[in-house]
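Support case: user asked for a sample of complex input and structure output to validate their parser. Sending the pair below.
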Amino acid sequence: MLTVKTDRLSKYYGQDLGVRDISLEIEEGEIFGFIGPNGAGKSTTIRTLLGLLIPSSGSAQIFGKDIRKFGPAIRKRIGYLPSEVNYYEEMTSRELLEYHCRFYDIYNYTDIDRYADRFELDLDKQITDLSFGNRKKCGIIQAFVHQPDLLVMDEPTSGLDPLMQNIFFEMLQAENKKGTTIFFSSHILSEVQNVCHRAAIIKNGEIIATENIQTLLKKQMKKVTVSFKQKPERLEYLIGSQNQTWRDDVLTFEYVGPIDTLIRWISNFTLHDVILEEPDLESIFINYYENENE
Amino acid sequence: MKMNRNLYKKELKRNRKNLIIWTSIVLVFTILVLSIFPYMKNIGDQMAKMMSELPEGMTMAMGIDAQTFNSILGMYNTYYGIYIVVLLSIYAASTAAIILSKEERDKTAEFLLTKPISRKEIFVSKFFVLFTLVSIAYLVQTIIAVVFITMFGGDDMMWPVFITMHTHGLILILFFTCVCLFISMLLKPKKSYMGLTVGIVFGSYFLDKIAKATDVMDWIGYISPFRYLNFSVSDPNYGVHIIAVFLSLLVSIILIILSNKLYSKKDIAT
């Protein structure tokens, strides 16, 4: 069964394009990634699905119900973490989370403390006094606490330190094991690779591909920097590498192909250092689609 | 018409402080005006004589006439029409302008609108909050006025006139509330609507006064609700202006319906 289904969903702000013809299908129980550079339309899509924006055309269903007609019923089963957490400044986290729970007819607040312990959030501090990261924690609890069937996460890790990111991903996986569907939006490719089963790639307001993560990984380009102890006299470039540049004894190139082959090739030489980097998203896309067209 | 109690309660709490401040101001003013009446009464005749020598336009603009210092009603009316109604209108209208738009400006709308609650429910709940706040401020002021008038000079008090004044006052307050609620739906969310609110309320008030003081500008007063819902208690035919009350309420209801429509179709930007 599909948890989210959008059909040519479009949003224009007057004449300006927000997103165009977004068609997505997210299976129940899936962790679905939504990846694209900043400003590509990730948040616009999410905000339209949640009813914050009114779609210009197209339609969308969540849990099989139309988003325009059944907004409240749908949202009752959604947990949403916005990319920027903005809450009532005069409230404490506890007051806010209890206020949140009452919208879902939850009057037993023990879960709030349980989550707060896990994230090391001081619930009795006013929201004004919270750092960006702590606000985010409050936002995460707010998304999880009412046990939703669909979690919508918009840039969830920004502002969280690595330790908290780990706790967050553990929790995400645990929720998913219980059957929660997760819609995970991010501009960080490695995050999406690590947690998602499938991902849609969005650019300039349009979805350019929906891929299985494994496929994406296979096609994924690495930026390789090899620093030779001694520059080899005769060097055969590896198949799948491109844009080679030399600076003294340091070779830099982009590589698409099996990672084992790359390691084996590198091991032929005596080296000072090797750096394998994830290139920025933009160049991955460009590369990905160049390869696709060949 | 479904109201969300969770939202209603939280909003009331959030607006509590502001309500207390504004109601206190209006109350202190009411009590002050009424408690100086016994002292003014003794010099009332002299004052009345002095008043009659002032240019008519000036006394009109100030809302003072010969009766002002002679009866407690005249005294109260002078201040009620200008200060109390205007102050209560500004309080009510500025609260109305901000009650929905503040969520947008502070970006808390993203929190509220992603809850299992419809926009209509939010609108209705917020409207009830507004209605509750304005009713409390209005009723407390009216009750205190009744108490102090009775204490300081209730013997020859003309209560029907008092009722007319307060009916006109209430309708004016409600009217400005709805106008500013509607305007806030049209504009981009602002930090404060105080300037706009004061402008509209005071503007209407002075339009009426200017028109009354100068014959040349008479026509301009017709657009001010103060002209119809007036406080000219010295007029022997003074009574509730039924048509004006009816029309103001009608316009107010239309503005509420339009505001709800606008709100239900609004994009909540980041």
